Sequence to fold (257 residues):
Amino acid sequence: MNVKSLKKQLMAAIAMVVVAAVALASATYAWFVTNNTVTATTSTISAQSNAAFMTIEEGTSGASTSDATTATYKTTDSIALYPARVRANATLTFETAYGTNPNDGTLKSGTLVNVGTPGEAVTKTFAKQNDFNISTKGTNLTDMKVQSVAMSTETNEFTNSEINSAVRVLIVCGDNWEVWNPSTGKCIQSKTNLTTSPTGYEASVLSGNITTGTDTVVNTYIYYDGDDTNIFTNNLSDLTTSSNVLITFTATSPNQV
Fold:
């Protein structure tokens, strides 16, 4: 394999994670003002690699001893989530709030409350967690980043529900993290850019090294952003089944030129 061919493969060295978007519900503290619930069916969650060296498994271990280039999460149950958002501070935590009135999901002043860590957000049903681990065979990779996050357009996976615009994906790898908006394809928040930006930030390095024989864990959290204009009580009937999300990772080979 020549250098040009290797470069082309590794520039596209990706792990594509199809993360099922989940259902939404109101909460005591939320951008809703009533306790109505929306329930949508979750879909299959998959991970896939198009790289010559990258291996992937579901869960937190196994990629380092696997030849697998795909991994699948099969979720058949529905899940209800409360709206939330990642706080703009140095500690990775979630928060939530009340809406102004049934026709206006704008955050009501003075109602913000801390939800807690991503793990606590999962326990309190503000987010859904799915874990993958990535490794490499034959050569080490560096500077793993998210290349893109987008709504899947595969047959029977894409819906036009208004809930799609509120889907957010928090991606955590070690101490590094980013929040992506699949509808716009933008990284809107990260450890180095705490303030949410609709215009987006350049993707940062999530892991400096993907090493042969070592599993690199990537935690993904799907949630619905209460700041989205479609999140208000009287719009519940339009917040139906959401589309799957496709996350693409990229990494660099030390031999790339």
